[in-house]
Structure formats: C-alpha cells, structure tokens
Specification:
- By secondary structure, the protein is mostly helical.
- The protein folds into 2 domains: 34 residues; 55 residues, no CATH class.
- It has 4 helices and no strands.
- It is elongated, with a radius of gyration of 18 Å.
Length: 90
C-alpha cells in the first residue's frame, strides 16, 4: 500500500522541482529572455507583488524607473486597456 506520507512528500518535491524548472526556463529559454530587465522579474510573477506590498512602491513608478534603466526594448505594452502606459523614447 502507498503510504500517505510518501504521497505528500512526492507532491512537495514535485512542486519544488516544477518551480525550479519554470524559473530556469523563464530566465534562459523563454522567447522574451533576450530582452534586458531584472532577473527576478523574469523568473517570477511575484515581482510586482513584492514591490507593491513589501516595498510600498507604486507599480507605475517602478515601470518608469525600469524604462529609464533598461530602455524600451519593445514599444510600450498594455496588459489591459485600463493599464495603458505612455512613455517617450529618448
């Protein structure tokens, strides 16, 4: 019989390995990996949450700073019509 503790341990190990694999893929093999930017932002969807909740920094202010630091590798994008961002390329 399969011990429930082994099943739980297997799920924990699977979750950890899946997270590591997704991080490696996002940083090195994703089609957008060639564009400059913070590695943490490329590796995790928690980048925005970290800056807004823990650092109390506005997402729009952070985006403006990132555009200044890394430039506009792509034209400004909108994640939804309500979140349009307009910046000028210099």
């Amino acid at each position: 019989m399969l011990d429930p503790r082994h099943l739980g341990l297997g799920l924990v190990i699977y979750t950890i390995l899946r997270g590591i694999a997704a991080t490696v893929y996002n940083i090195y093999f994703h089609p957008l990996a060639k564009f400059p930017g913070p590695t943490f932002a490329a590796s995790s969807n928690w980048y925005k949450t970290y800056h807004e909740v823990f650092l109390q920094q506005s997402w729009t202010t952070l985006l403006a700073e990132l555009h200044e630091k890394y430039g506009l590798a792509l034209p400004p994008l909108e994640s939804c019509p309500a979140e349009r961002r307009h910046t000028e390329q210099t």
